[in-house]
Amino acid sequence: MFKNIKSIKNFGVFKGAKTNAGQPFYQFNLFYGFNYSGKTTLSRIFRAMQLGEIPEGFETGSFEIDQYESTSITSNEIKKVENLRVFNSDYITKNVNFDESSVNPVLIVGERNIDLENELQEVESAILAKEHERDNNSQSATDKEKERNKRLTAVGRNVTDLNILGRSTFNAASVNSMLGSAIAKHKLTPEQLGALTDTAKATAVASAPKAVITVPDMTTIFNEIEDILSTSVTQITIAELDADKKLRDWVEEGIERNEGHTTCKFCQSPINPARLDELNTYFSKAYKDLSQRIDSAIASVKAKSFISSIPKTSQLYPDLQTGFDNLRNEVEPLNESFDAVKLSLIDLLADKKEHMAEDVLFSASDYPLPDATELLEKFNVQIKAHNERASNHSTEQRQAIEAIKRHYVYQETQDYDHPKAAKDIKAFQDAAKLLQADITAMNTRVDVIKAELNNTKQGAQSLNDNLRQYFGKTDIEVKPIAGTYKFMREEREAKHLSDGERTAIAFAYFITQLEDEALKDVKPIVYLDDPICSLDSNHIYNVLGIIKSKLNHDSVEQLFISTHNFEFFNLVKMWMSYYRAKEGNQKRSQYFFINRKGDHSQIDPLPDLLKNHRSEYAYLISKIKEAVTQPQNCDAIAVQSYVRKIMEVYFSFRFNLTDFRKQGTDHIAPNLLKGIDDAEVKANALYEYMNEKCHAKSMELGMQLPEAVQPQLAAIWDIICTAIETNDKPHYDAYFA
Q: 49 and 131 share a domain?
């Protein structure tokens, strides 16, 4: 049994409710509350304990419920209360299909059939064994599939980790699709794998220019040198000039500068003609011409250059860069060899200039030039390969990636027998399917046996009995049709059921379910939330009769009833008062009031006005008075409903009217406000307040502060009190004063 509501936090309108009014729950517990006070929300807490799960939309809420003989139940560790049954709007939605006019059958235990019971036991035991075998096969298939997929995933990951795939993927499914085509020639050596990986990783690059190595053509120069060396020039001997080259060069230049002059430009002395003739003879024209030819040849040799233009190594694909720098290192020796030839030729010519009278033999073969042909070919072979690859980069890269994939897939086929694993998996799955087929057939047999052991017709009869008790007539009944109960009216499927009929059917079905085999030999804990439709109070006494008959102290472990219907509340309270504590007896019933204040509700003791009187009218008047005089207690939503209820009751017994306004005719001004100033204006204000702003038609008012709403209430209440005091003074003195 439930003992107490220890706490409710952030569960709908219950923000921080603590204990049920400080009173424990007993066997019989009655809650009264107005619309939107939280009655259904409270029932959802109990239904959560019935189902073992928090209802949708209340995941952030929490609660803790104490029990008499067990540990408390919390929303954090919620557990099913097996004998708890809750009737509320959620139950109706879940169990009764009004669109199809049907409900699920109720199985009520019928007479015993030993043979069928034995067969049922044997079949159910066989089902358990086959389910165990099926589960083992399914698990084996799953384990084998996981093992295989793990390996396939690992292959894909190995390729992915090479960072060669770009935006594409290589997963288990990709590997699996390639297993069948894997052959031995797909295997790569480490060197091949490395080279292909480099290719696959390489980014697209531009083509590289060809290598250029040019050794100048020296044929013309060789011929000129040979001619110069074979030419000799004789001259007179001037010992001092022969001995001093610098002096000789200086004199030769001086003759040229002083040509045509009689005075030396250097020393300003007269030039001796005889000495000048001697010097001119020494520096003859043939001598000068040969000297100039030697100088020109030296200049030509110096002008010749070894030319080389080699692309940077980094311009090539990585795998083509190997050895390229080594080839580059061979260029400089060629350059040095050519420079050595040049230097030898220059030295040879310089020596000739010193000995122009001598005839010197010359052979070009003594001065071999370097040959760059072979080296140039080596360079351009790699450059050509690079350029061809650059023009076909995407194709080569794709081929490299595919080759790498095939290599890893082939390697996997050597490490693991995938075809056998696939066969094993299929064998396990086929075995599980066959076992499931057997289980399905056996379950069908179980259903047949249970259908014979459990009389669904008896369940339908019990449901119809409860419907007759509810309605007091047999307009609607249920019939078992095609595995379900159909609602029938005059032998036709019942459609367009009223709210009252729907509530009646759902409640009767709930009561019938309490006879279900699941509760055999167990007293249930029952929670009823508003078993009376708010729009149909014609069957209150019938419903109470069902409750008293089916849910009395001998039939339930504990009973909870919540309602907003005051007439029903009074009838239940009167019945439960029989179980109140009497002298020498233990108290067995308890009453509570679900009290909403603003945006939150709490569970209070039942007010004395409701506990000790059977009139809701007086209680509502007291609540309006409290709201007028104490704005902090003003509930914008509740007080509007209270005002309307008060006026409905007053109009009913005072004027025998059920409508405040009908077909455009106002009944407020000529009756309630008779003889009151500005009756029509006040009648419109009162009608709008009651009709347009009550029963949550303007829920946004509930979001306003009491200080904003209370003046409206005070003005309306003043209109009502003034009118009743003026036109019905005895009634005013009894209730309103």
A: no
Structural domain contains residue 670: yes
How many Cα atoms within 13 Å fall on the side-chain side of residue 62?
8
Residue 635 Cα distances to 594, 599, 713, 717, angstroms: 14, 8, 10, 15
Bridge-partner residues for 560, per DSSP?
A: 29, 527
CB-side neighbour CA atoms (13 Å) of 534: 10
264: left (phi > 0), else alpha (psi -120 to 50), else beta?
beta
Neighbouring CB atoms inside 10 A of 159's CB total 22
Mean pLDDT in runs of 10 for the chain (737 residues)?
A: 93 87 89 90 96 93 92 92 94 78 56 73 94 95 93 92 88 92 93 89 83 93 92 67 75 77 82 71 74 92 93 87 91 93 93 86 92 93 88 83 93 92 94 95 88 66 78 72 74 78 83 79 93 68 87 92 89 82 66 88 86 76 85 71 89 89 90 92 91 51 53 90 92 84
Pair 331, 252: CB distance under 8 Å = no
Does one domain contain both 620 and 721? yes
pLDDT confidence of residue 702: 43
For residues 28 and 579, give the distance between their C-alpha atoms in angstroms, rounded to a whole number: 8
> In which order are the strands placed within the sheet that holds 84-87?
84-87, 525-529, 558-563, 28-32, 589-597, 600-605
Q: Which two tokens stand for residue 677?
A: 């100033």
Phi, psi values for residue 498, rounded to 5° = -75, 165
Number of domains in the chain: 3
Buried-exposed string 326-355: b where 16+ CB fall within 10 A, e elsewhere: ebbeebeebbebbeebbeebeebbeebbee
Characterize 92-120 residue by residue with b for buried, 16 or more Cβ atoms within 10 angstroms of its Cβ, and e for exposed.
beeebebeebbbebbbbebeeeeeeeeeb
Please indicate, yes or no, whether residues 33 and 120 belong to a single structural domain of this protein: no
DSSP string covering 75-123: STT----TTEEEESHHHHHHHEETTTTEE----EE----HHHHHHHHHH
Between CA 302 and CA 300 the distance in angstroms is: 5
- Distance of alpha carbon 683 from alpha carbon 722, whole angstroms: 13
How far apart (Å, rounded) are the C-alpha atoms in residues 715 and 666?
A: 20
Examine residue 711 and state whether it is found in any structural domain, yes or no. yes
pTM reported for the whole predicted model: 0.48
Please, are residues 733 and 726 in contact by the beta-carbon 8 Å criterion? no
Q: Are 149 and 126 in contact (CB under 8 A)?
A: no
- Torsion sign over Cα 255, 261, 265, 269: positive
How would DSSP label each residue in 439-494? Answer: HHHHHHHHHHHHHHHEEHHHHHHHHHHHHHHHHSS-SEEEEEETTEEEEEETTEE-
E strands within 606-722?
661-662, 665-666
Q: What do you get for the CA distance between the two ends of the chain, in Å?
A: 45
Helices (H) and strands (E) in the chain, counts: 25, 21
Structure tokens at 512: 């019938």
Euclidean distance between CA atoms 230 and 357, whole angstroms: 10
Q: Which of left, alpha, beta for 317 (phi over 0: left; psi -120 to 50: alpha)?
A: beta
Q: Is residue 252 part of a domain?
A: no
Q: Which domain holds residue 412?
A: 116-205+390-430
Q: Where are the alpha helices (DSSP H) in 258-323?
A: 273-282, 285-303
Q: CA–CA separation, 435 vs 127, rounded Å?
A: 9
SS3 per residue for 374-435: HHHHHHHHHHHHHHHHHHCHHHHHHHHHHHHHHHHHHHHHHHCCHHHHHHHHHHHHHHHHHH
The tokens for 528 are: 């009823």
- DSSP lists the bridge partners of residue 594 as 603
| Tokens, residue 216 | 């100048």
The whole-angstrom separation of Cα 192 and Cα 475 is 89
